[in-house]
Amino acid sequence: MHGWIPVTAQVLAAVALVLAVGLRMRTRRWWLLSMPVAAAVGVGLALFARSYISSGGYAGDPAPRGLWIWTALTGLAAVVLVAGWPGSRWWRRAAAVCAVPLCLLSAGLALNLWVGYFPTVQTAWSQLTAGPLPDQTDEGTVSALAATAARTKTLPARGSVLKVDIPADGSGFRHRDELVYLPPAWFGSVPAPALPTVMMIGGEFNTPGDWLRTGAAIETVDAFAAAHDGNAPVLVFVDSGGQFNNDTECVNGPRGRAADHLVNDVRPYLISRFQVSAAAANWGVAGWSMGGTCAVDLVTMHPDKFSAFENIAGDIAPNAGTPEQTLRRLYNGDRAAAASFDPATVMSRHGRYAGISGRFDVNGTSRTAHGPAIINAAAGTLPGASDQLLAAQTLCGLGRANGIDCAVVEQPGRHDWPYAAAAFKASLPWLAGVLGTPGVDRVPVGYSEVTPDPAPRPVEAAGR
């Protein structure tokens, strides 16, 4: 989706729009009235979209100019279709009909280049048609695999992904089906071994399957398990929003009791249903963008239930727009509630932690002669640091002051899903080790077995 497809769509859209507008055989009224109206509508639509995204706090970095250009051209094309229909020849009407969806498609592709949500056409098709997820299977197959492993003393070559409907008795939070990855080692004994677990949280707009389809998490963890005799953490891909565009920031508030769902519904269910370890030392949270903020929040708020977090390009605190908008949207104006979910406030109030560690992966370009920069939060702020880097340095510095073993790792890349996938791949050896995965050595928090090498991005690509 970063290659010839966006360019082809844009060329076709431009050709159709030029034919629809008609550089020749148009009246004076067309150029003096219709086209200025079309241009005004297009510009207004682009300004509205930009204002909506900015006011909603939907992006951490500026959008590419192409998004606004194609949004404006979509509005222009719609007016040209309506205003130019009377008296036009059939081929010009056909061009006008084609121009609207082609301009809209070009705007959508520009948006995708920003956030990296669909890295390939196959991923997009699988998502839009609700196709099977990597390693997805059913209860019957899992039971058969467990029986075969017990009989033959041989682990399956790959893990299994199950869709689960977790009761919301502890929260009342309305959510979609969630997903659980069981590594090959889970099938090694009856009852299943008490493996560590990582809660996986996506970005602001998300489905529970995003980490699997777009974040390549299953490919990453299967490869990790294959290199460690089938051992890897159990992964649970949670629903933090209840619907695609419900930005809860994993807090309890008017958008739902998301925090209670993750802590009081998901965790007990995994322990009961899949016999994973109940010890806080064996539970971690990994999240991307909004999910990264959630990861820090959940672990620092509940050190009796979690012991490690992987924050990939998260914010300094839950964020749903400006501070005033965030306070209203997430907490109904309750400042005490907002403070209770602010990681800096939570750490300061808690004081000294024991046995807690965390890693902040931040997209950027700072590198040393030996690879990506491992940033000591106490060393101060780097010149030109991004908001995410400043947030990571601030929170890690405060965490260190309160006994949390943490590191800030800056890797090259954009604030998009391909970067999130690469960062998770780089951090998994540390995360699996610190959570006590059998057969996995514990490594320093800043360690990366591989250096993320994100897929090529357009020059202007970003997104929260």
Helix and strand layout, with pairings?
Layout: H1 4-21, H2 28-56, H3 65-83, H4 90-115, H5 121-128, H6 139-152, E1 160-164, E2 178-182, E3 197-201, H7 210-213, H8 217-226, E4 234-237, E5 252-253, E6 256-257, H9 258-274, E7 283-288, H10 290-301, E8 308-312, H11 323-331, H12 335-340, H13 343-350, E9 357-364, E10 367-368, E11 371-375, H14 387-401, E12 405-412, H15 417-434
Parallel strand pairs: 3-4, 3-7, 7-8, 8-9, 9-12
Antiparallel strand pairs: 1-2, 2-4, 5-6, 10-11, 11-12
Helix pairs in contact: 1-4, 2-3, 3-4, 8-15, 10-13, 13-14
Structural overview:
The chain is of the alpha/beta class. It folds into two domains: 112 residues, no CATH class; 305 residues, Rossmann fold, CATH 3.40.50.1820. Helix content is 46%, strand content 12%. It is built from 15 helices and twelve strands. It has a ten-stranded mixed β-sheet, with helices on both faces. It has a two-stranded antiparallel sheet with strand order 5-6. The longest helix is centred in the N-terminal third of the chain and has 29 residues.
Summed up, what is this model?
The protein has 464 residues and is of the alpha/beta class. It is 46% helix and 12% strand.
Count the strands? 12
pLDDT averaged over residues: 87
What is the topology, as strand order, of the major beta sheet? 1-2-4-3-7-8-9-12-11-10
Looking at CATH, which topology of the largest domain would you report?
A: Rossmann fold
Helix content: 40-55%
- The CATH class name of the largest domain reads Alpha Beta
- The topology string of helices and strands comes to HHHHHHEEEHHEEEHEHEHHHEEEHEH
Q: Report the sheet with the most strands, covering strand number, pairing sense and barrel closure.
A: 10 strands, mixed
Rg is 24 Å
Shape call: globular
The CATH homology group name of the largest domain: Alpha/Beta hydrolase fold, catalytic domain
Counting DSSP H or I runs of 4 or more residues, the number of helices is: 15
Number of domains: 2
Architecture per CATH nomenclature, i.e. the level-2 architecture of the largest domain: 3-Layer(aba) Sandwich
Subcellular location: Secreted
Protein name: Esterase
Keywords: Membrane, Secreted, Transmembrane, Transmembrane helix
InterPro entries: AB_hydrolase_fold, Esterase-like, Mycobacterial_A85_antigen
